[in-house]
Amino acid sequence: MEYRQLGKTDLIVSRICFGCWQLSPRFWGEVPLEPWHAALKKSVDLGVNFIDTADAYGDGYAEESLGDFLKKEGLRDKFILATKFYWNFQGERHPDTRYEYILRECEDSLRRLKTDVIDLYQIHAFDPLTRPEEVAAAFGQLKKEGKVRWIGVSNLNADQMRMYLPYFDIECLQPRYSLLARDIEQHELPLCLEKRIGAIAYSPLFRGLLTGKYDRDHKFEDTRKDAPLFNGKAFHRILDAMEEVKKFADDLGLTVPQLAIRWVLTHPAMTSAIVG
Cα(202)–Cα(184) distance, rounded to whole angstroms? Predict the structure, then answer.
């Protein structure tokens, strides 16, 4: 396993990060925990020391399932633990990055994860309704109390990151990035390099399309079933491109997923790729 320093932090993370979005029944249906536990154990054997989850994954279910397993197996100290906040689940689901909510949601995440500290606490998306000063005050309080070590953001563009940077240090950006989604190469990744901000890519396999396991007759039954790229002509064009990617991977003695993940990690701004 390869490792990198995450931004300017003291965190040395594996270049493969174990992701937990699959524990979100609203998107993927019910996922049996036994094979998920086995995969997490195997990741330890392979040298993975980095886990990313979020309060929104299953509305707390992913955090709770992860916390239960890490406590039962005594594995908390084996991992650098990252989670995210943004959605308020009280009443109708809505964005919320107010001071009081951040403090309360951090407490809830700590409880579900059964840990005393979150190594990397990330805003899941940009909230234009809350002033950056208020977000910064909440982060400052959590760090002062020793409940959060480092701060990151997810799904923010470069302009949004610049709005926050005068108020608090952003140590990590979590963007979507893959062979099929490269828009962040223009502004966001250059900003990460300029400011020494770590970057951890989610969906490096583009929600499974870069696994190479789907044919033209496949019908998705989960959250992908209504997405344009997973249906009709767009889906077929991607499969045409995948045939060329597979030839290239074969020439290198790699599988398509191996090639796709390695490609993501070759960008100089990229610290880790989230798989799962």
Answer: 12
Query: Considering 3, 57, 177, 202, which one is annotated as catalytic?
Result: 57
May I ask the CATH architecture of the domain 3-213+255-275? Alpha-Beta Barrel (3.20)
Q: What is the pLDDT of residue 29?
A: 63
Q: Considering the entire predicted model, what is its pTM?
A: 0.90
For residue 228, what are the CA distances in angstroms to 215, 217, 223, 240, 259? 16, 15, 11, 16, 25
- Spatial distance between the Cα atoms of 243 and 178, rounded to a whole number of angstroms: 17
CA distance 213 to 192: 33
Q: Is 57 a catalytic residue?
A: yes
How remote is the C-alpha of 234 from its chain's centroid? 25
Asked if residue 124 lies in contact with residue 87, where contact means CB atoms within 8 angstroms, the answer is yes
Whole-number Cα distances in Å, 120 to 44, 90, 184, 234, 263: 19, 24, 21, 36, 25
In eight-state DSSP terms, residue 226 is G
Q: List the one residue out of 113, 114, 106, 116 whose CA is nearest residue 84.
A: 106
Torsion, Cα 226 232 236 238, to 10 degrees, reads -40
Hey, is 86 helix, strand or coil?
A: coil
SS3 of 243, please?
Answer: helix
Q: Point out the residues of the chain with pLDDT beneath 50.
A: none
